[in-house]
């Protein structure tokens, strides 16, 4: 199990990434680039939260693979729902 220092470091990184997402839309860059960078930061934040706060780093790899399959299925469902709305 991770110690308090690790959790504090992850918290600070999440705080910086959250602030960076705000800054992307405030600086003078194209909106599509800001949206893309925000999506990348969201994935990084999700991986940090799942890995450390939900303790997936300490679980057997089979559980990690099961979670990845579930996330992929949710992505497919989202794409299908978006396609059916059009």
UniProtKB/TrEMBL annotation:
Q: Name one Pfam family in it.
A: COX4_pro
Q: Classify the main location.
A: membrane
Q: Which InterPro entries match?
A: Cyt_c_oxidase_su4_prok
Report whether S-adenosyl-L-methionine shows up as a keyword of the record: no
The record's GO CC annotations read: plasma membrane
Q: Which domain of life is it from?
A: Archaea
Q: Which UniProt keywords apply?
A: Cell membrane, Membrane, Transmembrane, Transmembrane helix
Q: Which residues cross the membrane?
A: 7-27, 33-53, 65-85
> Subcellular location, in the record's words?
Cell membrane
Q: Does the keyword Transmembrane apply?
A: yes
Tell me how this protein sits in the membrane. Answer: Multi-pass membrane protein
The identity of this protein, by name, is Cytochrome C oxidase subunit IV
| Source species | Natronorubrum tibetense GA33
Specify the taxonomic lineage: Archaea, Methanobacteriati, Methanobacteriota, Stenosarchaea group, Halobacteria
């Amino acid at each position: 199990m991770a110690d308090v220092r690790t959790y504090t470091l992850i918290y600070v990184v999440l705080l910086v990434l959250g602030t960076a997402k705000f800054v992307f839309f405030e600086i003078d860059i194209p909106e599509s680039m800001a949206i893309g960078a925000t999506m990348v930061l969201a994935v990084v934040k999700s991986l940090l939260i799942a890995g450390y706060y939900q303790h997936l780093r300490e679980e057997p790899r089979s559980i990690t693979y099961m979670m990845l399959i579930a996330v992929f299925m949710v992505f497919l469902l989202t794409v299908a729902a978006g396609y059916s709305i059009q």
